[in-house]
Amino acid sequence: MADQHIASAFDRDLEAIQARIMKMGGLVEDAIRKSAQSLEARDEEMADEVRRGDKAIDGLEELINEETARLIALRAPTAIDLRVVLSVLKISGNLERIADYAKNIAKRTGVLAQMSPVNDSAAALRRMAREVELMLKNALDAYIQRDAELADDVILRDREVDQMYNALFREFLTFMMEDPRNISACMHLHFIAKNIERMGDHATSIAEQVVYLVRGERPDDTRPKADMTSVTPIAE
Amino acid sequence: MADQHIASAFDRDLEAIQARIMKMGGLVEDAIRKSAQSLEARDEEMADEVRRGDKAIDGLEELINEETARLIALRAPTAIDLRVVLSVLKISGNLERIADYAKNIAKRTGVLAQMSPVNDSAAALRRMAREVELMLKNALDAYIQRDAELADDVILRDREVDQMYNALFREFLTFMMEDPRNISACMHLHFIAKNIERMGDHATSIAEQVVYLVRGERPDDTRPKADMTSVTPIAE
Predict the structure, then answer these.
(1) Which of A76, A173, A184 sits opposite B2 (nearest CB)?
(2) Which part of the chain is the PhoU domain (chains A, B) (predicted)?
(3) What is the DSSP string of chain B?
């Protein structure tokens, strides 16, 4: 097996898999954008499109995993080559999770469309989703170009997304306390905010893979966790 | 490289990695149990123990990933052997995520200890966590014994956990609507319920890996998704 390891054959196979990762990434970016747009516009058709589109993304992940296993079996990569190949599995897993969150948001659009809008929360959520979509785009660009500095930038920007989430969490609490009729809608909106925040975590995880691939060590894990809602008592 | 592939050496290496997976699994089961116990008993010291213990679990995942990469590089496994090795990576990833959820629950214990208890919610959450802990234990036993029927059973039981979550979701909404002073605590309790439900999803994902390893095909993906809260409007 290992005798057949010819650098160019490995590179060619890897390029094909990375092209598929980029295709999957494009579909996931669309899903993020459309899930947030359909929420703001109360567009149930667009939300359905996101829900239906998830199958194609799951299919791509399966395909990438199979091709990656075949690449390992055929080319028996070692050292840095192996690290690159294993990072493909992690990244396709991250992308699949982000798409799941987008699908989950799309599911809630139908329910929320039947309720009164809560202030301008949907617009705030769309802005937050837009930021995460950009983070993902840059994380994938950083991956393809092995650009650790761009990846560092993505990792830093995750804190802004966490701060957006914290602000929304407080806003939702206030709306619920002001008027119990807001409770139901705010529970859904809060879930959506948390889902977008988690998408940001997965984009960050891709960026961290890039840093690891380029520099050979994990990014500083003393990075502060900026979602403080779990440890902050809320004034009542 | 491939010439060095001796069946017994591969088996020995794999066994060592699987022993580490079981060790990690034991720590994660403890974290699930203790996070729920500390919540119910308002025991902040035990909650701190869970938070501090997460580092050891993360360390084990790193170690397992490195050993797995080394195994692939050294032994160049193919076909079913490769599939088994790749499943190790998925399972260690699932375990790490479950431990993260337990840590997140433990973080909220300190905040909730400062608020009035909301009915007997903490006891209900502890029962739900107990069910998930058992699912995880059985999923890991099924993995080590390659027991697809035990894995099927775990997959089925995930629906019960989803139903427990749905019931709690409705309960929290009711408590919040009845008395706005419950809103803050219920937001945290609801998060905890969702975290436990997600732990169940990860235990199920491990069971699905087992089915795939033993039968060579993924479990029926028409399995109904029983968390219905995202699509159910709540009567107000």
Answers:
(1) A76
(2) 21-109, 125-210
(3) -GGG--HHHHHHHHHHHHHHHHHHHHHHHHHHHHHHHHHHHT-HHHHHHHHHHHHHHHHHHHHHHHHHHHHHHHH---HHHHHHHHHHHHHHHHHHHHHHHHHHHHHHHHHHHTS---TTHHHHHHHHHHHHHHHHHHHHHHHHHT-HHHHHHHHHHHHHHHHHHHHHHHHHHHHHHH-GGGHHHHHHHHHHHHHHHHHHHHHHHHHHHHHHHHHSS---TT------TTT-PPP-
